Every structure is written in C-alpha cells, then in structure tokens.
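Thought: the user wants the 3D structure for the chain below. I'll pass the sequence to the structure tool as-is, report back what it returns, then summarize two notable features.
Action: structure_tool
Action Input:
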Amino acid sequence: MLDEVIEQAEQEKPKKGKSQYATIKKEDIRPGMLVRVHQKIVDTNSKGEEKERVQVFQGMVLARKHGRENSATITVRKVSEGIGVEKIFPLNMPSIEKIELVRTYRIKQAKPYYLRTTKKRLAEIKE
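Observation:
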C-alpha cells in the first residue's frame, strides 16, 4: 500500500517552475515520512493591517494519532539551529494548504520517538 502511495506521488510531481515535491493526500501520511507542511499564517502589523503568508515546516513525521477521524493529528519534528522543534498539526485544520512528500524512510517502530534522543539514531534509518 505504501509503495502505491509513493509511486502515485512521484507520478504527480510537477514539471519546471513548480515545486519539486509531490503533494500527498492527508490520509496517506505515515510515520517515517519526511514532509513539508504549508500553513497559512495571518500577521498583523502595527497599523492593524492583516497580511497573509504561507509558512513551510519541513520535518519527519513521528506519529499519526486518531486514525481517519476528523480529529486526526500528525506530529512533525525538525532540528532548527541545533534545537529540536516539534509541531502537532490537526489534519483537518483549514489553514493547512498542502502537505508535500519529500522522501520516505523505513523505520523499525510505528512511532519513532527514539529519534528525539540523539543525532546518531537518525543515521540508523534506511531509505
């Protein structure tokens, strides 16, 4: 099943001028995938004007909780300037524009929380 999802995502890769990563369905996200989550952010300046922008959060999916329910969430972890950052995204949040698949890893556990502890553990993951 996972192989079919990866093949389908690779076939949908856009041509020149677009992103080099394939958009993946929210139902097909699994732990061990390296994803880019595009989220709309509304900023307000000192004059009270609102400005909307898209913020990209790229990291490894550590967990998917609540299956296919409306309250399903994913936990994404990245290391930014030597500090680990984890974000929990509700999959049905309207501010999430799209989720792109960067690459997939074969992991040994359903929820690879062991990746939090050391950087050496990340090298153990196979593609």
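Final Answer: Structure generated. The chain has one domain: 2-123. The two ends are 17 Å apart (CA to CA).
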